[in-house]
Amino acid sequence: MTLLKFNEDTHIFLTGTIAFLLPVYPPILAPIIVLLTINWLSAPKLMTQGFKNIFNNPSLILIMLLYVLYLVGMLYSDNTKFGHETIETKLSFIIFPLVFSSYTEICKENINKYLKLFIYGSIVNALICFIWATYSYLKPVYYFLDGIGYDLGANYFYYTQLSLFLHPSYIAMYSVFALISLVYLVSKGELKLNWKWAVAIFLLVVFILLLSSKAGWISLVLFFVYFFRWLMIKKRTVFALLIIGFLIGLFSILNIYLTPSFSARIPHLTVITTTLKGLNYENKKTETNSDGSRSRILVWKAATEIIKNNFWVGVGTGDAKDKMMEKYIEKGMTYEYENKLNSHNQYLNTFIALGVVGFIALFLCFVVPFYFSYKEKIILFAAFIIIVGVNFLFESMLESQAGVIFYAFFYSLLCFQIKNDSGTSKAEFINRNSPIQNPKST
Question: Strand pairing partners for 150?
């Protein structure tokens, strides 16, 4: 075995390990990413070609540009400690594009393998969470609050009690993308939709419903739009209608009857309208609220006020959180201050830190790859962009390793490795349609 072959095999193994462990146990990913980087650095010839590949891919340039803007934001940050933590958290924006661009052909050949491993990891995570919830329910494992132990009953299968390793929003996003990847692989003939995979789909759907992430529910609806579209193309209309009826029944039984806290997760229209007016349950003026939906709206309002005063360059990479805390104190938002809430919206969070330039860079990280994926019919990448984009509306997901690694990992893999039906990659598509490469187009 040559050194180059060993290097490539190591790359495949480490990339597959990251794909599997992403939904299973994210805290262990950092040392594996370090090993992936060391393996890349040990092949300087591949690195040289990788740099050339990056310049042929505008999507990769954009995500790396976003990281550079966060570095620039450090120049006018007062809280350098938090700024350095932010820079460290977002290192995947640089690492994955650089590494994967040096193994383009290998990643193209193995992308389906990575997707399968991610699906397996998502299933394993769901099973672990359900097993622990069942154990907690039967034993029971008491939940302590202010020194008092509570038996949560059916709520062990609900929201944060069900999600062991991460916030439910992250796990729900992972699980939805696993479902999309599963249907994608079935549509490409890489997997056969037998009873085992049908059970896996059922498991992940139930898991997402019980995680009760609002963004997860919206993403799940989008997944079923994608799934139904595929069924309609296959002329399986009756099956699609049966699934719709089944889902409505499942949603009602699992969430409304078996989990008493469910109703609190569904905001009524009056909650939204009154909170926008600054009113609480009793229609009295308020700037703070412990209800999740009301608090999130109040936080968004506070974030927009900061943006108005720091529109062009933002407050700096390290000062976004501090400015939110100052705004909470100024407006009397005691609950939000005590719980140190961020903006719960990645677009707002980036706008606060980096101003309109940073916001545009983040926005283009969605628009540009979506344009290419739509143009070339790269359905999986388009679905990924939509799902992540929806989740960014409700959580500041790039402020944690769990969100950054997931986004940067699959973004970097998909943006230049998935081919369209005619077998043309994005880089080849650009070159083919370039006036320089194709004089007839002029």
Answer: 143
> So what's the pLDDT on residue 226?
83
Cβ pair 345, 394 in contact under 8 A: yes
Buried b (16+ CB within 10 A) or exposed e, 23-36: bbbbeebeeebeeb
pLDDT tens, position by position, 365-385? 999 999 889 888 888 999 999
What's the pTM?
Answer: 0.89
Listing DSSP states for 214-241 in one string gives: HHHHHHHHHHHHHHHHHHHHTT-HHHHH
End-to-end CA distance of the chain: 49
DSSP for 152-204 reads -GGGGGSHHHH-SSS-HHHHHHHHHHHHHHHHHHHHTTSS---HHHHHHHHHH
Specify burial of residue 175 (Cβ count, 10 A radius: 0-12, 13-18, 19+): buried
CA distance linking residue 321 with residue 427, whole number of Å: 39
40 CB-near residues (< 8 Å, 6+ apart): 11, 46, 47, 98, 99, 102
Residue type, 157: F
Sign of CA dihedral 157, 197, 117, 409: negative
Check residue 158 and give its pLDDT.
86
* Burial zone of 149 (CB within 10 Å; 0-12 exposed, 13-18 middle, 19+ buried): exposed
Q: How far is CA 287 from CA 73, 209, 281, 326, 394, in A?
A: 30, 31, 12, 14, 20
Q: Contact 257/248 with Cβ under 8 angstroms?
A: no
The domain spans of the chain are: 3-266+345-441
Arithmetic mean of pLDDT, 344-368: 97
Q: Which residue has the higher pLDDT, 420 or 129?
A: 129
Structure tokens at 124: 């394993």
Rounded to 5 degrees, what are φ and ψ at 210? Answer: -75, -25
Query: How far, in Å, CA of 398 to CA of 305, rounded?
Result: 21
Q: How far apart are CA 411 and CA 127, in angstroms?
A: 27
Cβ neighbours for 257, distance < 8 A, ≥ 6 positions apart: none
Whether a cis peptide bond, with omega within 30° of 0, leads into 140 is yes
Q: Could you give the dihedral angle defined by the CA atoms of residues 161, 164, 167 and 173, in that order, rounded to the nearest 10 degrees?
A: -110
pLDDT band at 83 (very low <50, low <70, confident <90, very high): very high
